[in-house]
Design brief:
With 155 residues, this protein is mainly alpha-helical. The protein has helices at residues 22-46, 53-79, 98-125, 129-152. It is built from 4 helices and no strands. The structure holds fe (ii) ion (2 copies).
Length: 155
């Protein structure tokens, strides 16, 4: 059984690394957003117990925020002359219990925070103020998601 919730895992939806151009980075981030949308919606639908009802709404709400992130990234990629990817990165599939689901998702969020921080620095170094501001805004959401998944896990 795979260990979840270390906070340092790069799986799932976390294997891509920032590299290459800013457009490459934005598309890598979009691929991850597309993956976690599906991952969190799956967890929303997987919950069948009464104790999980409040968590189900959390998974749903966070998945919808990730959808907004994917759209923001897509619009920015398009504006910059790129082609917004439609291919999600790897989606986590083997969580069964509520704790496994939340731990898997917390790991994805910790990865997201790290990757968005790196992307903010990259946009800043390239003098792209608008992209940097967008990434900072998304980063704030990801930090909020870390907090919410930690709360689900009682951490
Ligand atoms: Fe996101
Ligand atoms: Fe998130």
């Amino acid at each position: 059984m795979e260990e979840y919730g270390s906070g340092t895992s790069t799986m799932p939806a976390g294997t891509a690394q920032a590299a290459g151009t800013l457009l490459d980075t934005l598309n890598m981030l979009r691929a991850r957003e597309l993956a976690v949308i599906t991952q969190y919606m799956r967890h929303h639908y997987q919950i069948t117990t009464a104790e999980g009802l409040a968590m189900a709404d959390e998974f749903k709400d966070i998945a919808i925020t990730e959808m907004k992130h994917a759209e923001m990234l897509g619009e920015r990629i398009d504006f910059l002359g790129g082609d917004p990817t439609t291919q999600p990165s790897e989606i986590g599939r083997d969580a069964r219990t509520l704790e496994q689901m939340a731990s898997m998702d917390l790991a994805s969020e910790n990865d997201a925070v790290r990757l968005y921080r790196d992307a903010v620095k990259q946009a800043d170094s390239e003098g792209d103020v608008t992209t940097r501001r967008m990434l900072e805004s998304i980063l704030g959401d990801e930090e909020n998601h870390v907090n919410r998944f930690q709360m689900m896990l009682g951490r």
